[in-house]
Design a protein that fits this description.
14 helices, Ammonium transporter fold, two-stranded antiparallel sheet, single chain
């Protein structure tokens, strides 16, 4: 997160950050629709409701505990203290170093915690028990998201090491993508994976979800300037440019191999958005073009590789789009940064090293803790639905509702 100018309350900054928080929130049902269109029709309600449930559960976790663990007083660079539990001390007074109330900063940050958990759901759709999903979400937010957020944005050890993450490449997308891989490995593949057809049931729904994501991402990235200033403008433009470059690149790649599918084009846009997130306020609009192009190429080929190997069923390609895309984006920040920071092309090799350390540590921590957490939940309450429940679909077996009934 960028730091705005310290001083008195700035009404324009406050309005922009509040509006940006709302834009990020609309991304959460956007994720639900994006994922919901790609699953089979017997699992649509289940897939969409994951995102809505997260909006409630993680919003409460953030107020009660998560904000304090992420942004409380630094404890050995690892985690925040407990002084802000229940929003104790988080008031309408201007937050130190910013021009907005502490409460505005808190609610903006809460949306990032919410959407990160929502992103992971794409890895285990069509086979997870709803009760286990709720327990996993709460535990993951507390044990994985909150510590990493503190490392990078809360004054933790990665911040002190100089790692750059403008709007969540490390905190949101790498942590979600790598955790998606871990939990998919624990829960196992869907019944019939690799043999039965598992075609998307409604691509227009996915396109609508992608449109909401692209729209909301302006709040995600430009809002992370934490002020209505020129950095927000730059982040807005780089966000749009990277998404456009990635969408066009994916269209060309898929056209070369098969046909320029709608699903491919919107997936490319999301990959470009994930890649530019850590760099949005630090790079120029021109630099955001190669960031989007390379992200699309990497993510496209990552999907092909994972599906061909058939070793893990990351159902909706969370690792490939978010984990791989933003890993490139974090490293690209260390290469192209020229606004408020200097990257490799500006002669600062140290920044690229700091980015590499951030990537490696986040991959290791997120994977290890998520894998262990998945194993514990699976051993105690079980992660998967019963085989017959999976066959009939999670809409009926878990929620007693059918999308077309």
């Amino acid at each position: 997160m960028a730091a705005a100018q310290d001083g008195a309350l700035n009404a324009a900054d406050n309005a922009w950050v509040l509006m940006s928080a709302a834009l990020v929130l609309i991304m959460v049902p956007g994720v639900g629709l994006f994922y919901g269109g790609m699953v089979r029709k017997k699992n649509v309600i289940s897939t969409i409701i994951f995102s809505f449930a997260v909006m409630g559960v993680i919003s409460l976790q953030w107020i009660l505990l998560g904000y304090s663990l992420s942004f409380g007083h630094d404890v050995h660079g690892i985690i925040g203290g407990l002084e802000n539990v229940g929003l104790n001390g988080v008031t309408l007074a201007v937050k130190e170093g910013l021009s907005i109330p502490a409460l505005t900063f808190m609610i903006f940050q809460s949306m990032f915690a919410v959407i990160t958990v929502s992103l992971i759901t794409g890895s285990f759709v069509e086979r997870i028990k709803f009760s286990s999903f709720l327990v996993f979400s709460l535990a993951w937010a507390t044990l994985v998201y909150d510590p990493i957020a503190h490392w990078v944005w809360g004054g933790g050890w990665l911040a002190k090491a100089g790692a750059l993450d403008f709007a969540g490449g490390i905190v949101v997308h790498i942590s979600a993508g790598v955790s998606a891989l871990a939990i998919a490995m624990v829960i196992g593949a869907r019944k019939g994976y690799g043999t039965d057809p598992m075609e998307p049931h409604n691509i227009p729904t996915t396109v609508l979800g992608a449109a909401l994501l692209w729209f909301g991402w302006f709040g995600f990235n430009a809002g992370s300037a934490l002020a209505a200033n020129e950095i927000a403008t730059n982040a807005f433009v780089t966000t749009n440019t990277s998404a456009a470059a990635a969408a066009v690149t994916w269209m060309i790649l898929s056209w070369r191999d098969r046909a320029p599918s709608a699903l491919g084009i919107v997936t490319g846009a999301v990959a470009g958005l994930a890649a530019i997130t850590p760099a949005a306020g630090f790079v120029t609009p021109l630099a955001s073009i190669p960031i989007g192009v390379v992200a699309s190429f990497l993510c496209y080929n990552a999907i092909l590789f994972i599906r061909k190997s058939k070793k893990v069923d990351d159902s909706l390609d969370v690792l490939a789009c978010h984990g791989i895309g933003s890993t490139w984006g974090v490293m690209a920040t260390g290469i192209f940064a020229s606004i408020g920071a200097s990257g490799l092309l500006a002669g600062n090799t140290g920044q690229l090293m700091a980015q590499a350390v951030a990537v490696a540590s986040t991959w290791i921590y997120a994977f290890a803790v998520t894998y262990g957490l998945g194993k514990v939940i699976d051993a105690t309450m079980g992660l998967r639905v019963k085989e017959e429940e999976e066959a009939v679909g999670l809409d009926i077996s878990q929620h007693g509702e059918g999308i077309y009934v």
